[in-house]
Design brief:
By secondary structure, the chain is an alpha+beta fold. 32% of the residues lie in helices and 30% in strands. It has a domain of 54 residues.
Length: 97
């Protein structure tokens, strides 16, 4: 899954709404783990995913864009452990599908 938000739209809640809707939909379809990739240097995106419960598990990959090399980090959220404690993933302000 990838989410891109235009710079002028940052901080307005669009990315949060998109991610929470996607997570809710994937959960309703039975997915137990969800992962996203983000550039190592994209500290805004990394903080965003961490606020939403995703964690970097150590997976990295080097990619090349326009001849320049970048490192991407894999962030993951795993509901299996959470489900053992709680039956529902609470998505604040979002109706369950």
């Amino acid at each position: 899954m990838s989410i891109y938000v235009r710079p002028e739209c940052l901080g307005k809640g669009y990315g949060t709404a998109l991610l929470r809707q996607a997570v809710s939909e994937l959960r309703s379809r039975g997915y137990e783990r969800i992962y996203v990739w983000t550039l190592e240097k994209n500290h805004i995106a990394r903080a965003f995913y961490e606020r939403e419960g995703f964690a970097h598990k150590g997976n990295t990959v080097e990619i090349e864009i326009g001849g320049e090399k970048f490192v991407e980090l894999r962030y993951e959220i795993d509901f299996r452990a959470e489900d053992a404690e709680d039956d529902e993933y609470d998505v604040p302000g979002l109706a369950q599908l």
